[in-house]
Amino acid sequence: MIGPFTHTALPMRVVFGPGSLAALPDEVDRLGLQRVLVLCSPEQQATGEQVAAALGARAAGVLAEARMHVPVEVAHRARELAAELGADGCVAVGGGSAIGLGKAIALEHGLPVVAVPTTYAGSEMTPVWGLTEGGVKRTGRDLRVLPASVLYDPELTLTLPAQLSATSGVNAIAHAVEGLYAPDATPIVSLMAEEGARALAAALPRVVADGTDLDARGEAQYGAWLCGAVLGATTMSLHHKLCHALGGTLDLPHAPTHTVVLPHALAYNQPAAPDAVAALSRALGGVPDPARELWELAGRLGAPRSLAELGMREEEVPRIAEPAVAAPYANPRPVTREGVERLLHAAWAGELPEALRR
Ligand code: NAD
Fold this sequence. Notes:
Blueprint: E1 14-16, H1 24-30, E2 36-39, H2 45-55, E3 59-63, H3 72-84, E4 89-94, H4 96-109, E5 113-117, E6 128-133, E7 136-141, E8 149-152, H5 162-180, H6 187-209, H7 214-233, H8 238-250, H9 254-269, H10 274-283, H11 290-300, H12 317-326, H13 337-349
Parallel strand pairs: 1-8, 2-3, 2-4, 4-5, 5-8
Antiparallel strand pairs: 6-7
Helix pairs in contact: 3-4, 5-6, 5-7, 5-9, 6-7, 6-10, 8-9, 8-12, 9-11, 9-13, 12-13
The structure holds nicotinamide-adenine-dinucleotide (NAD).
């Protein structure tokens, strides 16, 4: 049976394809912006400068200080600089960190953000912002932070290292997985989720084998777009709760953490999410068990498979389980402390998900 459901479409403008960076000045003009601040992380300063050069007089400056989880002090500096320069918009080029910084400015000053994503994290498709202060990350939803225009140019992803490509891609698949069993999923969201997961699962082995394969890079970015849109449209469950706790409490790296946890969280939820399992089975090439396939995919991609190798100590399991069991939230299967702790122990050790061993 179809429905009942309520579907809200978020505004979305996407310019996609190799060489689409050349359309950036037109996109900025289209929004009526005359002085944009270009944001990127320190490692991508050269890309930020390249973008500023392409914008010519429309670029008011470059701030290459974006960092994971948007520390408040970086957000303050960026907001002050935007005000000082009289910026009327931002162009965020990079991964979720650069786009997150643009969102932090938009949240306070309301300046429109043009996003040029160079990873597969998907932040550009969501109205979700995050700010970290004293080791605590606050997040919220606000339509003002949703980028007004997004340019996906796969040429800009050719430099994304194999490891980061693999984990960032699986991070995107995680949005699709949780979108498929989200309480607010709709048939349209599910279409995007299945197609996004399919595109990424097909493209990632090719991307890891040859990072300069533009065709594979384009397919991965297409998948990332769809998965990001799913993230923006739905409420995430157990998997994202656990990753949020692991990132926020232990400062574990974002995309690798998602990669390790995903097969475990999906294995936990699979018995209670048959429609999601069916969609993921199709997306992953007709496999009988999507969680097992994602666990094996991580291995084939050479991605990390244990939280231990990301720096977590096993005695931290109860501390991480706590926020995932503290307050109720929508999840296909009831979330029990015992279940979550077993899940985390297996993910810590890098074992096959516990639910698949029976
Ligand atoms: P990131 O933005 O921190 O990038 C990781 C590293 O890769 C950085 O050093 C960056 O400079 C480098 N990099 C990025 N693109 C590159 C390229 N093409 N070539 C070479 N190097 C490149 O990592 P991320 O995983 O994209 O983003 C993670 C952050 O985004 C986290 O803080 C996460 O919470 C946030 N996020 C937010 C949302 C949201 O909806 N608000 C969604 C997803 C992620």
